Amino acid sequence: MDETSIPVFSIFACIREERIAGAKDLCYAVENTASAGAFFHAVSLPFRRHIYEDRPAIRHARRAPRPARSRGPRTYENHFRSSPFEIAPGIPACVGGVSKVNAAMAAEILCLRFGVDMILNAGVAGCATDLPTGSLVVASEFIQHDVDTTAVGDPIGLVSTVNRVAFPTWEPARCTALLQSLGHSAVTGRVATGDWFAVKGDRAQWIADTFHPTLVEMEGGAIAQVCLRNGVKFAAVKSVSDHLFSDNQTEEYFDFGYALKELGKVVLPFALALQKEEA
Length: 279
Prior knowledge:
Order of helices and strands: EHHEEEHEEEHEHEHEHHH
Helix content: 25-40%
Largest sheet: 5 strands, mixed, barrel
Shape: globular
């Protein structure tokens, strides 16, 4: 893939480094950069971290040629957990890193340097409801629960400049139907993003009562904001890894292999289906 080509969309992944060792055999390896992170066995982002049953497709993915340097001594690769590479023709993937800033930087580079038409964010997330572990959720919209300028009269969660609370995703009902056509059931739901690893307690209860999300995670809302401002379509599919209000949340989170496996079954097929939809 040269710099002049325009991929249909990109997959973005972000995953905690401490998860990598434990999920070694569930996550794809980027040639010799396995320590850079693993998102799913089959597809990774410049969608958010984070495939499995289709592991060979990822292992043998071709790296995209490195673009020329931009201003200064650093290249865009300094901002990724791993260098972007093609997991399928016209579909670059990368690991962006944990948190809103890392996710936003990766998404912006994908938009500006790769000229993507769509970004797919795939990963695991904590659940604020009672969906079973491994359930697939197509994000209907994102909010950022850690944005608070109510002191100056704004609604809670309002993001300045774009002046909105909720950030849309591309046709969530259509995405759910695509997954179903691939043999995978999924539901749609609102996702709350913030730079806080959600755990049971007063803050988690406040997020649930204020924003009524299905899931809580740390990157998707930032990617949605970047895509909105760049006019790039954005879709997200998440797999439930743990439950915010469960007494066993910690054990669930550190035993997230099943959630990753379920996600890994769908990411690459879903990405390819989205590519055909957009062709």
